[in-house]
Amino acid sequence: MSERFDCHYCRDNLHGKKYVQKEGRHCCIKCFEKFCANTCAECKKPIGADSKELHFKNRYWHENCFRCFKCSTSLVNEPFMLKEHNKVWCNKCTMDQAPHCKGCQKPIVAGDQNVEYKKTVWHKECFTCSQCKQVIGTASFFPKDDEIYCTSCHEQKFAKTCVKCKQAITCGGVAYQEQPYHSECFVCATCSKKLGGQRFTAVEDQFYCVDCYKSFVAKKCSGCKNPITGFGKGTNVVSHEGHSWHDYCFNCKKCSIPLANKPFVFHSEQVYCPTCAKKL
């Protein structure tokens, strides 16, 4: 008596019948479709032992179900792409649906390197400077109206030039009397302190912070001997024969009455009111 040769699942005798060997096990056709067959990704039915099976990335199809999701063209032996919702598309439909490059107007397909800006897309090699035509790719750029500029061309074409160093001002900057400066160029001529947003004095195209102006530039009051800065109290100055005074220091040497905007007598480098001058 011959040894039994049964289906692994239903135990029916397989002698003289069609069967399938799956992972070292023998099973009848009915059990194969019930327990072992892969499910078609398109029609969701089992792929029987008698059907030709196609597979890609752990997904399976009947040969007749392996068609373009959009146009239904058979993709057997044809190039295809697996897109959203795991649907297969032919190359033509993929190209028709692909976004188009703003530069060359050709479709951008999967795998193409691209650049996106404000809901517009370019091939990487098409994303070029409007002036020098060099590829910008993923480098920094500046949009201007409908044009795109690389950093260098934008500086040359649009950036203001610093009055001091003559280089382009690409970010921030300081304006004085409608003249542009880099913030690092607009500094005190003596101590190099940045003057943007600070009190300063301009003297013959040089700028000085308050402290340096007091110490090195400002004239000394002939009355109190302190610097005349033009800041705070005593912004008005009285000058006479090379001498300068705070207006509140311009007083009669003898009786101390204020003489600013009044008649006075200058004698031996001192200031006197007319009455006291007569008594000298």
Describe this structure in words.
This protein has helices at 29-36, 91-97, 151-157, 210-217, 274-277, and strands at 19-22, 25-28, 53-56, 59-62, 80-83, 87-90, 114-117, 120-123, 141-144, 147-150, 160-161, 168-169, 174-176, 179-181, 200-203, 206-209, 237-240, 243-246, 265-267, 270-272. With 280 residues, it is of the alpha+beta class. The strands form 10 sheets. The protein has a two-stranded antiparallel ribbon. It has a two-stranded antiparallel ribbon with strand order 3-4. Keywords: Acetylation, Cytoplasm, Developmental protein, Differentiation, Isopeptide bond, LIM domain, Metal-binding, Repeat, Ubl conjugation, Zinc, Zinc-finger.
Largest sheet: number of strands, sense, barrel closure: 2 strands, antiparallel
Give the terminus-to-terminus CA distance. 158 Å
Estimated helix fraction: 10-25%
Widest sheet, order of strands? 1-2
Please tell me what the overall shape is. Answer: rod-shaped
Helix-strand pattern, N to C?
Answer: EEHEEEEHEEEEHEEEEEEHEEEEH
| Classification by helices and strands | alpha+beta
> Average pLDDT value?
83
What radius of gyration results from the CA coordinates? 46 Å
How much of the residues is beta strand, in percent? 25-35%
Number of helices: 5
Number of strand segments: 20
**Which residues form runs of ≥5 with pLDDT under 50?**
none
List the helices and strands and how they pair.
Blueprint: E1 19-22, E2 25-28, H1 29-36, E3 53-56, E4 59-62, E5 80-83, E6 87-90, H2 91-97, E7 114-117, E8 120-123, E9 141-144, E10 147-150, H3 151-157, E11 160-161, E12 168-169, E13 174-176, E14 179-181, E15 200-203, E16 206-209, H4 210-217, E17 237-240, E18 243-246, E19 265-267, E20 270-272, H5 274-277
